[in-house]
Amino acid sequence: MLASRFGRQSHSFRSASPISDEQLRRIAPSIYAEAPHASRSERYTYIPTSTVLGGLRKEGFEPFMVCQTRVRDEGKREFTKHMLRLRHPSQVADKEAAEIVLLNSHDGTSSYQMLAGMFRFVCSNGLVCGDTVADVRVRHKGHIVDNVIEGAYEVLSGFEQVRDQRDAMRAIELKPEEARVFASAALELKYDASAAKPAPITETQILAPRRHEDARTDLWSTFNVAQENLVRGGLIGRNATGQRRRTREVQGIDQGVKLNRALWMLAEGMRKLKA
Prior knowledge:
By secondary structure, the chain is of the alpha+beta class. The chain has helices at about 20-25, 50-60, 145-170, 175-190, 205, 220-230, 255-275, and strands spanning about 10-15, 60-70, 80-85, 95-105, 110-120, 125-130, 135-140, 235-240, 245. Helix 6 runs antiparallel to helix 7. This is DUF945 domain-containing protein.
């Protein structure tokens, strides 16, 4: 999971082109805090997000998504939790792009964290990789500047592993019964269904592609179709009382990352079983 939670009402913005500093300041001013919040003690080590962002930009990564939590105390608006997703502009034309997911705060509400992820342009869903890929967390204590810099390069180096896993999934064909097992496990990850409260939708619905190019039987396509259907919602199902309802989109950032990573780990487990 992410080191902290973002509510559904968080300020967020996603763009098809790199987000400018002006836009970032408007959505997430806490990125540019010049010092920690006054509530932090002397033991608290300040990690400036703007400095990390500048370093990642030098490596060719630009922000394409930004989010910041809403706060009741306006005095914390310039310091609260924020998240950036960065990728290389050269990958805009690619179907999948490697992303860096960066989380930080300057008021003690979260640790500093970086994750390796993938962004699939055909459905605009961020796929956050599981525990086998780079996941760097640094507490705001001690001499940690070097750890932050090393963590950035660890995440960057992890992308090669992400691509290898993606290509390996593409090479594996699933039988219909295997795809249903995958879909059944995916439903459990989101709904934790039981006999008293079954999942509102079926394995068949989870495996139904939303576009012709996704109508493939390889593990990577099956994973992407299931991920999109579960995250984006909009499927017609029935609640516990039998009433027809559309499934909801996963909007909370923490919930989305948790589900994405669990699905990735499920797909990785299937890949290892089939290898």
